[in-house]
Each structure stands twice: as structure tokens, then as C-alpha cells.
Amino acid sequence: MNILVLGDYENIYSSSPAARMLHQKGWNLEAVTIPVKPEQIPSLAEGKKAIILVRERTPLPASVIDELHDVQLISQTGKGVAHIDMKALETKGIDIKTTPGGSRTSVVELTIGMMIGAVRQFPAHQEAFSRNQWIQHTGTELHGKQLGILGFGSIGQETARIAQALGMNVKVWRPTGGDGSEKELGIEQMTLEDILRTSNVISLHMRLTPEWTGFLNEEKLSLMKQGAVFINTSRGAFVDEHALARLLRSRHLAGAGLDVFQEEPVREHPFHDCDNVILTPHIGYVTYEVLERFADQALHNAANYFDKQ
């Protein structure tokens, strides 16, 4: 049995306990650590029964899926599948398994860190230090401020718990109405317009599907209150980046923390002249703990799938 891993960080997958378990079963694991272009995938996948995809590092469009003649399973790390043509997978008869929940803690920690960094003006202080200047910009506390969470899955809920521990007043907007889980935390659900208008910090935690692309356009972002902070550790496609950059430059928004972007890897972005935004290259899930969990779950998904055949 041959398995292909695409996007293996620092050989974590190929050196994991789960990989050793597969080797003991007589399986062969081929891991690719460097980014590959979609058109390279069919040749790499020749003779492979399964492909392990590490997050969204490798898109699978229909043109590629149509050329996967030996693959029976896609084992996707995380639960996001916006980078995969699911209809083409179904047409081709290729099954897919995911690993939901594995990155929650790391994403939440980054989210809270970005909130703190934005309200205490980390980017401006870092920029001043790089010029050998000692400038103390006045920040604000999170304690007593309103946090508006858009989307209330497992990451949104854990963010809410930690924000409450910091003394924040948490509100939530749920695109689907929800299951009432916010009531267990004593959190009020608001309309989208109200939560944007009244929150000191907005943190986005929705699941991306095609109909939500461009959801936070200039009209909606402009509803945010003067001096608010915007955090996005979800997906970049939700947000009009140029509109957000204009609101940051005008100081209508005091700051932002962005871990995700419309195009990844980022080649160009509109935030070059913004000294009030924290930018990170989609590292929410990039910790050893998450990658080890993903490796274990994704490889075991493949083992269990073929063991049942």
C-alpha cells in the first residue's frame, strides 16, 4: 500500500508514530515537504491509494482529480475543504476523511494574542524599535470591552471562554441561528449589524463556503465602531482586504490581526503602509502539537479506511 503526503512540515508526518505503525503494516509513505503545483500531483500520485493533504497547502481542482487514477481516499487534515472540488471527488468515486478539532487550541491562542497585540499597538512599537526610537503609544485594556464573535463553532466557543476569563463582555452572531450553545456561557446573540456597531473587538470564526466569499465587504466593515479592532484567524476570502486597509489607514479601525488572506501564499497585499495591523502567514495551526495530532488522525483515518476493505 502506497500513500502520498503533500505539504509535510519538517517531516513531522513521515516521522510520526502513526507513520511507523503503517511501515510495520508494510505500507510505503512518500512525503513531499516542498509546495507542489496542482499539475504535478497526478504524476506524484501514480500508484498511490491515498493522499494525505496538510491543510489547504495543496489545492485539488477538478482538472487534477480527474487525473488521479489510483487514488481511493483523500485524508484531509482539519475540516476545511474549500480548496477541494468536492463534486469532482464524488464523480471520480474518491472518498474523503477529515480531522476536525485538531487545531482549536493553537488557533484560539493566536486569536487572543492578536487581540492583545492589536489593542496594545505591538506593530507601531515594533516599527519604532526597528528605527531605534523609544515611543510609548497608549493602548487600551481588553477587560471590560465587548468582544463580538462571528461564528460560534468550537474555535469561537473556546475564544469566548478565554475572553470571558479576561473580563470581556462577549456577544455572538451566528450565520445559521445556532444550537443555543452560547446560552450555556451566558452569551447574548445579536444581529450582525448590532454586533458590528457595538463591539470593541470583532473576531471572525466562520466556516468558509462559496456563498460567504466576500461576506465582510466595505459596507459591513464600515459599520464597525470608531476605534474597534478586527481579528481574522478563519479564512481570508471572507474579507474585502482593500476596504479593510482603507479603514485601518484612516484610523476608523484602531487595529487588526490577520493570519489569513485572500491569496495564499501572499504575493501582494494592501497593508504595506499600515502600522496598526499584525500580519502572520496562516500560522494558526502551525504548532508541533497540532501537526502531530493531524498526522496521527489523518494516517489512522487512512489505515482504518483500508483495513475495512
UniProtKB/TrEMBL annotation:
Which SUPFAM superfamilies does the UniProt record give? Answer: Formate/glycerate dehydrogenase catalytic domain-like, NAD(P)-binding Rossmann-fold domains
Instruction: Give the UniProt keywords, A-Z.
Output: NAD, Oxidoreductase
A GO molecular function assigned to this protein is: oxidoreductase activity, acting on the CH-OH group of donors, NAD or NADP as acceptor
Q: Can you give the residue ranges of the D-isomer specific 2-hydroxyacid dehydrogenase catalytic domain?
A: 22-308
Q: Mind telling me which InterPro entries this protein's record contains?
A: D-2-hydroxyacid_DH, D-isomer_2_OHA_DH_cat_dom, D-isomer_DH_NAD-bd, NAD(P)-bd_dom_sf
Quote the Pfam families the UniProt record gives: 2-Hacid_dh, 2-Hacid_dh_C
Record-annotated D-isomer specific 2-hydroxyacid dehydrogenase NAD-binding domain positions: 112-284
Matches recorded under Gene3D superfamilies? NAD(P)-binding Rossmann-like Domain (3.40.50.720)
Q: Which family does this protein fall into?
A: Belongs to the D-isomer specific 2-hydroxyacid dehydrogenase family.
- Name by which UniProt lists this protein: D-3-phosphoglycerate dehydrogenase
The organism named in the record is Sinobaca qinghaiensis
